[in-house]
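Before we proceed, please read the two lines closing this message. Report back on whether the structure tokens fit the sequence:
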Amino acid sequence: MTKLNLFLHKLIHWEYWPYQVVYFPVYFQYLFYAARTRSFFYFNASNPTIKNGGFFMESKKEIYDLIPSEYYPKTLLIEPTETLEAIQEKIKEAAIEFPLIAKPDIGLRGTAVKKIHNKQELAAYFSKANFNVLIQSLIPYENEIGLFYVKLPNQPGKITGIVAKEFMILTGNGKNTIRELLHEDKRYLLQLEVLEEEYKDKLNTILSEGETINLVPYGNHCRGTKFVDASHEITPEMIESFNIICSQINGFHFGRMDIMYHSYEDLAQGKNFQIVEINGAISEPTHMYDPKHSLWFGWKELTRHFHYMYLISKNNHKNGAKYLTFKEGVQEFKNHHKHYDTILEF
């Protein structure tokens, strides 16, 4: 398949468009709300206990510390100055076993998130990581969703959307290599360059009939995961369960919870699930990226959720949560771009 074919595929599917284009109507909405609040950084108040409301430079570890421990996997914070021996000892003491997940404490759309299978891969990861890293035990559930939760002023919380995540799972036929199987799906083929760097010669492996492989076991759209709108799975029971769960997360009012779970029935009852992470003010209603949805639908969902964030931020500000000053906000943007460059060097 030629590069031109892939370019045309991305051109006619808006889910691949640059965010600067997708967010075009939101820019005007943002300026209007900035004028109303007299702050360019009013979103800081959307989640008062999360740094910058969860818009940028927020520590995942600090967010995990807000969540009851039974709702998320065992998690260790590793600083870049720590030796490999000290890291291995921490992992042993926490009873975290291989395979495990390593990811930046301050993340960037799935960059540098890796499944680590052994001590050699652990050493290779930390030989390159020049940033704080989280080590996590593997979550024992196969299904993943993004659940968007909103707690509007003086109202019970509600779930405004659910996105199901279809991983990059290939099934062998006993004839074709992994590389050849990737060519059968444009979504996967767009990831070929990254996969070649990670898997190298393994892409030439022929999977036996019915054998499966999950090439990217993290639910990131930019890493090839397909997003499917599963908002029809929202039930009154699920909303009630997550109102109870989220009431235990101090200061969380707006954002998307990435969750791995056993079944929707269990999830509705608030059991057999774990939170992968919580995204705050930067959260997207990612169910909009289902290929069946139009750009118009995406714009409606973006502006709807941006309005929710404005209402929540304004109310929290009345109750004492602060907006970032212009100087503070600009400095945080600078810090974000500096960290961005560090992560991309990984």
